[in-house]
Design brief:
- By secondary structure, the protein is α/β, with parallel strands linked by helices.
- The protein has a single domain, classed as Rossmann fold (3-Layer(aba) Sandwich), CATH 3.40.50.360.
- The chain has a five-stranded parallel sheet, sandwiched between helices.
- Helix 1 packs across helix 4.
- It binds flavin mononucleotide (FMN).
Length: 149
């Protein structure tokens, strides 16, 4: 089972969530490979059973510029079998809370085997721990289900 976590974070909130998810994957005996978007070798995308996208939201509900290339890769490659999840942090003061998560969700739902979406208000709090656990479980369950087919 190979899982990649690919993310971008400007002020560290999304990175905190990603670190938590990484630990939770490890608790389930999965050593996820974690990449800042700039470091991810895009040609390796199909080598993974599961890919988690982590993104903050910018502008008016927009996907950050550095995440746009991978969005397009998902749109143009055959990644139908890939299990995916999208997680993001945002700020409810903005009208489009976690707009980038919504945009990735809608595209990944069509292009991939989307298992789960998660939105977190700024930095993760104690109560987000269980939500992150659930996130990891849903990804792993979907991968298992796919392996039986
Ligand atoms: C210029 C600017 C625009 C933003 N626009 C949005 C937005 O439209 N929706 C939202 O939910 N959050 C918005 N945010 C909040 C960030 O997404 C939020 O602070 C996030 O946790 C930052 O993640 P990071 O610490 O990983 O960089 C905006 C922040 C800034 C500075």
């Amino acid at each position: 089972m190979r899982a990649a976590i690919i993310y971008s974070s400007k002020t560290g909130n999304t990175e905190e969530v990603i670190q938590l998810l990484w630990r939770l994957f490890l608790e389930k005996q999965v050593q996820a490979e974690c990449f800042r978007i700039e470091e991810f070798p895009i040609e390796d995308l199909n080598d993974y059973n599961a890919v988690v996208i982590g993104t903050y939201t910018w502008g008016n509900g927009e996907i950050p510029r550095e995440m746009q290339a991978i969005y397009q890769v998902f749109e143009t490659r055959n990644v139908k079998e890939l299990v995916t999840g999208v997680v993001g942090t945002g700020d409810t003061c903005y009208p489009q809370f976690c707009g980038a998560v919504n945009k990735f969700r809608d595209m990944l739902f069509v292009q991939t085997n989307l298992a789960v979406t998660l939105k977190i208000e700024l930095a993760p709090q104690i109560e987000d721990y269980a939500r992150c656990q659930k996130f990891v479980e849903l990804i792993l369950n979907r991968v298992k289900k796919q392996q039986y087919h």
